[in-house]
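Here is the promised in-class demo. Please do not try to memorize the tokens; focus on the logic of going from shape to residues.
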């Protein structure tokens, strides 16, 4: 067992928190004036364990299948966390973001910009532990106004709370690492586990398959464990000139490289999903004290394209909420990184019956290969300094690096037309 003396000392010396003041949500009559997407909403209080709860789980799985196979997004309500828990984590994030810039640069997740990263030494600002500074990413030659801090290894106490693990973080947050760990552990063991079990029902494989094989935690072995990283994220207002250049997009359209992503519902109307059927951008409405969950690329690939890793972005807040602080808590959930992300891995009767199989052009790859190579592209100038929503189309291992061209049995129907107009997907040195 690792020495945790430093952590115990930091708890005793920690700075008191100032409560985060969450912005007020829009009144319903005003929110109704904006295009919003009607997401499936799962009531997690209806989830019951054991044989006696099977019919209730099947009912939830039916709802979940509708979400996963269409927009790839859904709301989760009654998740078992009190409002005070969410706000405590936000307050910790607020404290962490308050330290001076000269201290932040001592705890960077990588370099100051994506193009400066040495990926042989760092996971970069996207996935590495520490701060991603503002201006790290580029979109149409505009540097971003987003700051975030990533935490890794919180499912492994002997790593996360060891003296070495504690020293990786700024002093101001060290005494609150148990709070961070408790929050993301709850998401993993309660929320992610239940989503995996419901997905097993959808895929007609034994309950526990996804969790036991790909999401379980092996002590002190993050690579072969389910996990990923947690993020505390703050958005700052860009200049009016930059908003014009980016078409008011604060975080460009993208699909997540994760397996699934779990984030807090936000009262600021800003998160948008690109409608799977029409291509129209629609806002995600707010449900207090609930979570928003979306499919990542890893789960889309494992399902052969049946589950959709949909494109989403963060747009400038609507007029009534300009100037409010958008703060987000996100858990990017990764499976065992050695998982081969093809449908043949799980041999699902449902997918086999519907005809979802690995396309010939897909190379056989692990989740780690995908996540690592995709993570290198997100903020690169060569990919993102273009006008409009869509970045340069890049193929990685025979698969489009962003899921702009949605999948029909893993066959992107828009590629042929895109290639006719713009040429084939490019190769980028990652």
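The designed amino acids, position by position:
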């Amino acid at each position: 067992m690792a020495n945790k003396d430093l952590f115990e000392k930091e708890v005793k010396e920690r700075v008191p928190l100032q409560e985060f003041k969450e912005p007020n949500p829009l009144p319903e009559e005003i929110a109704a004036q904006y295009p919003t997407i009607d997401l499936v909403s799962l009531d997690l209080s209806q989830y019951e364990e054991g044989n006696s709860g099977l019919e209730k789980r099947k009912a939830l799985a039916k709802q979940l299948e509708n979400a996963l196979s269409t927009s790839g997004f859904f709301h989760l309500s009654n998740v078992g966390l009190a409002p005070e828990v969410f706000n405590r984590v936000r307050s910790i994030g607020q404290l962490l973001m308050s330290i001076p810039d000269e201290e932040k640069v001592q705890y960077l997740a990588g370099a100051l910009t994506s193009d400066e990263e040495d990926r042989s030494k760092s996971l970069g600002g996207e996935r590495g532990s520490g701060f991603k500074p503002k201006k790290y990413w580029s979109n149409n030659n505009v540097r971003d106004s987003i700051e975030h801090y990533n935490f890794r290894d919180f499912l492994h106490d002997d790593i996360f709370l060891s003296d070495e693990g504690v020293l990786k973080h700024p002093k101001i947050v060290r005494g609150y690492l148990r709070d961070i760990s408790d929050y993301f552990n709850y998401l993993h063991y309660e929320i992610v586990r239940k989503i995996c079990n419901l997905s097993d029902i959808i895929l007609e494989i034994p309950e526990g398959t996804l969790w036991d094989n790909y999401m379980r935690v092996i002590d002190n072995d993050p690579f072969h464990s389910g996990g990923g990283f947690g993020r505390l994220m703050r958005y700052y207002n860009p200049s009016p000139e930059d908003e014009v250049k980016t078409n008011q997009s604060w975080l460009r359209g993208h699909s997540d490289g994760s397996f699934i992503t779990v984030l807090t519902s936000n009262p600021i109307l800003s998160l948008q999903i690109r409608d799977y059927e029409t291509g129209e951008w629609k806002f995600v409405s707010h449900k207090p004290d609930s979570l928003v969950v979306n499919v990542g690329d890893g789960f889309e690939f494992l399902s052969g394209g049946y589950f959709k890793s949909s494109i989403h972005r963060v747009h400038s807040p609507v007029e009534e909420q300009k100037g409010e602080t958008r703060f987000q808590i996100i858990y990017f959930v990764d499976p065992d990184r050695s998982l081969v992300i093809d449908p043949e891995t799980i041999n699902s009767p449902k997918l086999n019956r519907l005809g979802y199989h690995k396309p010939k052009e897909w190379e056989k790859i692990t989740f780690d290969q995908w996540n690592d190579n995709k993570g290198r592209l997100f903020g690169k100038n060569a990919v993102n300094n273009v006008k409009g929503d869509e970045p340069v189309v890049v193929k990685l291992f025979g698969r489009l690096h962003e899921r702009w061209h949605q999948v029909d049995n893993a066959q992107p129907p828009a590629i042929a037309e895109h290639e006719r107009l713009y040429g084939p997907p490019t190769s980028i040195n990652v």
